[in-house]
């Protein structure tokens, strides 16, 4: 049973004050060496959550449960994040994917319900037209 002191400003019992959403499909197939961009939007679950956005907490990107490391990835990985009072938008860009980039990507932030997308890198084969579409690229 939730503790009454754990309620959100709007009176709800949820520990989340906002929701992350990665745009596009939940699984993306990309050819080895191609670029890919994941776009995550974090939106408040209630009007009172705007106070949370004013604080501008950092957006974290995880790959298979581990924080994405920019030092190890060099110029291959970049993140661009924009904040306003109504939403936070963060783009994770991989300039040239390889098999090691395959896996689950998570966009998260303190007190936000996380979002997930799976990246599947394919090598040495021609993709059917249906899989060549990469709606996350360039969003």
Automatic annotation (TrEMBL):
Q: Which residues form the Ig-like domain?
A: 19-107
Q: Give an example GO cellular component term for this record.
A: neuron projection membrane
Q: Which domain of life is it from?
A: Eukaryota
Database matches in InterPro entries? Ig-like_dom, Ig-like_dom_sf, Ig-like_fold, Ig_I-set, Ig_sub, Zig-8
Q: Name one Pfam family in it.
A: I-set
From its record, what is one biological process in GO terms?
synapse organization
Q: Which PANTHER family match?
A: DEFECTIVE PROBOSCIS EXTENSION RESPONSE 4-RELATED (PTHR23279:SF41), DEFECTIVE PROBOSCIS EXTENSION RESPONSE DPR -RELATED (PTHR23279)
Protein name in the entry:
Ig-like domain-containing protein
Native organism = Exocentrus adspersus
């Amino acid at each position: 049973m939730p503790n009454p002191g754990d309620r959100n400003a709007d009176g709800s019992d949820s520990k989340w004050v906002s929701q992350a959403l990665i745009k596009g499909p939940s699984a993306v197939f990309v050819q080895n060496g191609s670029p890919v961009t994941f776009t995550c939007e974090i939106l408040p679950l209630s009007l009172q959550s705007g106070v949370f956005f004013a604080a501008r907490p950092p957006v974290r990107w995880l790959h298979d449960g581990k924080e994405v490391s920019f030092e190890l990835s060099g110029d291959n990985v970049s993140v661009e994040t924009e904040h306003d009072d109504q939403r936070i938008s963060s783009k994770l860009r991989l300039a040239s994917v390889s098999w090691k980039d395959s896996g689950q990507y998570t966009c998260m932030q303190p007190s936000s319900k996380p979002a997930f997308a799976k990246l599947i890198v394919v090598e040495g084969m021609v993709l059917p037209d249906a899989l060549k579409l990469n709606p996350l690229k360039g969003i």
